[in-house]
């Protein structure tokens, strides 16, 4: 039975902790001095880390080095702290520990997350076993790609929420109530993405192939899509991801 300690039970740490507690193959402990309503949390970080085989660091980036300095034995460490490189952690970490950086996104809270990871390959099997029930795992080929992953998967939910809101506003402009327009927009996104996923997995269908199935000559869809082109919507969405990546690069330099 793997002994796991989750340090930091905030927006990401808590759902990870809650999910792992349900797995009978794990003995899971949590540490967070700011959480007062969760029973049976550890109160001594140094003691808790010495008893754990795997430590998941889910504290705020500005606290991570302070936490690592309390480690007194080598451990397997998985960090979800944004902008804190493996080399930065290694400088403060106990010698001999194995490290992986993993970046989750907001839908992890409902076990529909997308997570990119990179680090010591010796503990990749642990990463997969621990996080596979929380969503899709993507093994990245180098650490620099974590910034690209963060821009797409980390910032992506905000872009999707904005797109859903824009769809709903279009529905309202067309005469629907906002409540109905929002429900329709959400279901349209859910159904379309699940359909795309199924078609891609089974037939490697390209998104544009599926778009063409909806776009008939002289029909409503092509007139709507022409507004996308007129307003540069496609470019704006792709550029949003790229600008988020550039900002991630900047923040990484600041944190050094």
Structural class: alpha/beta
Which segments are poorly predicted (pLDDT under 50) over 5 or more consecutive residues?
none
According to CATH, the homologous superfamily of the largest domain is NAD(P)-binding Rossmann-like Domain
How much strand content do the residues show?
5-15%
Specify the overall morphology. elongated
Mean pLDDT: 93
- What count of structural domains? 2
Largest β-sheet summary: 7 strands, mixed
C-alpha-based Rg, rounded = 22 Å
Read across the widest sheet, the strand sequence of neighbours is 2-1-3-4-5-6-7
CATH topology of the largest domain: Rossmann fold
Number of strands: 7
Note the run of SSEs as H and E. Answer: EHEHEHEHEEHEHHHHHH
The CATH class of the largest domain turns out to be Alpha Beta
Distance between the termini: 37 Å
Question: Residue share in helices?
Answer: 40-55%
Number of helices: 11
The CATH architecture classification of the largest domain is 3-Layer(aba) Sandwich
Characterization of this structure:
With about 260 residues, this protein is an alpha/beta fold. The protein folds into 2 domains: about 1-145, Rossmann fold (3-Layer(aba) Sandwich); about 155-255, ProC C-terminal domain-like fold, CATH 1.10.3730. Helix content is about 50%, strand content about 15%. It is built from 11 helices and 7 strands. The protein has helices at about 15-20, 45-50, 65-70, 85-90, 125-130, 145-155, 155-175, 180-205, 205-215, 220-230, 235-255; strands spanning about 1-5, 25-30, 55, 75-80, 100-105, 115-120, 135-140. The protein has a 7-stranded mixed β-sheet, with helices on both faces. Helix 4 (about 85-90) links the parallel strand 4 (about 75-80) and strand 5 (about 100-105). Helix 6 crosses helix 11 (about 235-255) and helix 7 (about 155-175) crosses helix 8 (about 180-205). The protein is elongated, with a radius of gyration of 22 Å.
